[in-house]
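Predict the 3D structure for this chain.
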Amino acid sequence: MRSVFTITATRFSWPIAIGVALVSLAIMIFWGLDQGQGSVIYSELGLFTSALGSPLMLILPLVPVLAGALPTATAISRRFVSQLWTRTSMKAWLVRHLLGTAVRVWAVFFVTFLLLYIFAFALWPNIQPEVLSPESYGLSADQVLGYARTSFSFSQMMVFGPGMFGVLFCALLALQCALYCALAQAALLLTGRILLGLTVPVALYFLQSILMALIGQPAFGLMYVFNPSGLVQGPIWQPVLVLLLLLGVTILASARVVRSRHDLASLA
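Done. Predicted structure below.
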């Protein structure tokens, strides 16, 4: 008979992640439509970044954390994890659980952002045709794509075309969500404290972004790596470097969990 934790982690993980993602998608769409009333935007890419700029951006790490880390929080709070060690390898389970959750969150949010991208390019202009007005920016139809490439750092990938850019950019947005979730999982397992573990990614997101703004380098802030609209375009290596640092911190935290597995109270 499978443990309650195993049932929680497998049966309900996907529905929880999909449910959180769908609510997030609805919030971004309705926010974008509301902001579009009485406004003019130069292109569909501007519509997409406008929707990304919803209030969810302020609590971005909390969204994937809720989508992916709740089963782990439940397991720790109810001491379900300890039931596994008589039937499976602790190391194998930890690696499988940490990687599996990150991949699940990446997949769910990749589809979510891609649906938002498709909505911005294919449906939104039909719902609010008056919102697209490149002429208001002094742009002709032939100049819109070139202007879009200079909007923010990652928009330089528009050189591959709007379709490929959408896939690449949505994959990068989803990667950030997966990393925040993985970081929360590691914090939960290392500390055994649910509230602390769940808020670590949010605190890092805010404090690092504030610090970068204070030293005059907002482009290196985690908040602006997710939604860089409004900043002057910089070299693409800047946000990539920030993502690599976030990836490194997450890998180190996850490796610490695996190495310290026999000493963690959360796994006892």
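The mean pLDDT is 82.
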